[in-house]
Amino acid sequence: MANNILVKRFSLEEYHKLTELGFFHEDEHLELIRGEILQMSAKGRAHETCLRNLLRELPRLIGERATLQSQAPITLLTNSEPEPDFAIIYNRDDNYLSAHPTSRDILLLMEVSDSSLEYDKSVKLPLYAEAGISDYWIFNLVDYHLEAYHEPYQDSQGKFGYLYKQICLPHQTIKIPCFPELEINLNRIFPGRLRSPKF
Question: Which of 7, 78, 110, 121 has its CA 20 to 30 A from that of 49?
């Protein structure tokens, strides 16, 4: 006879309470996804280099047009609080002191994906689409290209996804959807491939 396994799912309120009580260690990188508290995987050097490149380029491009946040919480639906690698969000007078950004505050979400690629596609993509996030980018370090998703939808089976997917290679440029006058040179974002050492 198969054992029944019960999984405790947390509400946003419960998750915030556990955080306030110090239940989690400060150096733990956690996300609440559909009620489950998940620990994020360790990041490789290529992932961190891509993040550093984004940290250099995005503030220069965006300026005061919007607010940038990196690996910080966004509140989605009733039971999810992911921490995407980057978010471009609307400016707000209180700079989000009163509450984390929600789906109506978000202009563009970005994930840098190496070991997390399948998770970012199969778990986060439908979550972001269901929350109504208009644009979602994956810097795919496995296949070495950018995947730009646009226009969320729900199919006849109730599943969520994006109608459009654009592939951009590292030598190309792409317009930032919320600011089409701005372009990112992807060659300045993707880390260069390391050459094999010579012996």
Answer: 121
